[in-house]
């Protein structure tokens, strides 16, 4: 039994689907979905990097998106997208560094497609993503 009272947390919703933590799109989602559980047990967070760079690298392609929110609009080609109330995605990689689970906001991080896809992919899979980020209620 816990001695602390329950606290409310934020949930997100995308196209009628409720989520906790992070909703992702683009190449990063493909890597997460295709990283083998056994590989994750053996390599931890490095399993995602291996899957992304070695196994799935040929599948890297940008997607077009149009995103709007309170005081926020963006459209264009992107490699990865994260919307959530958590800082981390698969493998412990930081995608939304300012996100908090109970502040009433969902953070958005968009990693735009660049001419240098290899460089952008390296940034995406590292823990220091410098994509376009915003905070929205």
Q: How many structural domains in the coordinates?
A: 1
Residue stretches low in confidence (pLDDT < 50, at least 5 long) are 127-134
Under CATH, the topology is which?
Answer: Tumour Suppressor Smad4
Instruction: Give the biggest sheet.
Output: 5 strands, antiparallel
Brief sketch in words of this structure:
Helices cover 25% and strands 34% of the residues.
Structure commentary:
By secondary structure, the chain is of the alpha+beta class. The chain has a single domain (22-136), classed as Tumour Suppressor Smad4 (Sandwich). 25% of the residues lie in helices and 34% in strands. The protein is built from 4 helices and 9 strands. The strands form 3 sheets. Strands 3, 4, 5, 8 and 9 form a 5-stranded antiparallel sheet that branches. Helix 1 (27-34) crosses helix 3 (46-55). It starts with 11 loop residues before the first strand and ends with a strand. Residues 127-134 have low confidence and may be disordered.
């Amino acid at each position: 039994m816990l001695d602390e009272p329950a606290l409310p947390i934020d949930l997100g919703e995308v196209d009628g689907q409720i989520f906790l933590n992070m909703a992702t799109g683009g190449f990063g989602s493909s890597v997460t979905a295709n990283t083998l559980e056994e590989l994750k047990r053996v390599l931890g967070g490095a399993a995602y990097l291996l899957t992304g760079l070695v196994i799935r690298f040929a599948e890297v392609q940008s997607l077009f998106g149009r995103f709007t929110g309170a005081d926020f609009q963006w459209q264009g080609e992107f490699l990865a997208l994260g919307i959530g109330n958590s800082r981390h995605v698969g493998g412990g990689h930081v995608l939304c560094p300012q996100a908090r689970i109970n502040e009433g906001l969902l953070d958005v991080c968009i990693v735009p497609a660049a001419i240098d896809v290899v460089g952008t992919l390296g940034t995406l899979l590292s823990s220091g993503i410098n994509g376009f980020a915003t905070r929205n209620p």
